[in-house]
């Protein structure tokens, strides 16, 4: 017979292998709040549709509307999961253009001069993304 401690250890061992758990393993709780918010919103939409709308309209579980909804929500959940757990990588060096007049290539000249959204603290050069 297993006690609660054994069950807890088994569940913990299984959950620690999940990509979503690994993604936020050593992060502050505040980093996972956007994910929890989106999951709560998707859960609210699901419960509202299944527990309120479907019975009110008289839809069956295997109706076309229900199947389209469940398929769409499942695909959205899978896409969101992949977007959270996939590391975006780095900007390839060959994509970084030379600067012209202190601004990167492709940035139009404006009347007041171009103000970067962000520059690197150490070198003062343009920051293209947080991965630099």
Automatic annotation (TrEMBL):
Q: State the species of origin.
A: Zooxanthella nutricula
The organism sits in which domain of life?
Eukaryota
State what protein this is by name. Answer: H(+)-exporting diphosphatase
């Amino acid at each position: 017979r297993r006690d609660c401690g054994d069950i807890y250890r088994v569940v913990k061992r299984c959950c620690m292998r999940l990509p979503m758990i690994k993604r936020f393993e050593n992060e502050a709780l505040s980093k996972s709040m956007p994910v929890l918010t989106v999951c709560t919103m998707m859960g609210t939409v699901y419960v509202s549709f299944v527990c309120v709308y479907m019975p009110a309209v008289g839809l069956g579980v295997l109706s076309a509307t229900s199947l389209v909804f469940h398929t769409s929500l499942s695909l959205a959940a899978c896409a969101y999961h992949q977007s959270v757990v996939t590391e975006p990588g780095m900007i390839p060096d060959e994509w970084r253009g030379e600067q012209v007049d202190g601004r990167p290539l492709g940035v139009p000249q404006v009347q007041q001069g171009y103000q970067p959204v962000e520059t690197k603290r150490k070198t003062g050069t343009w920051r293209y993304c947080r991965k630099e």
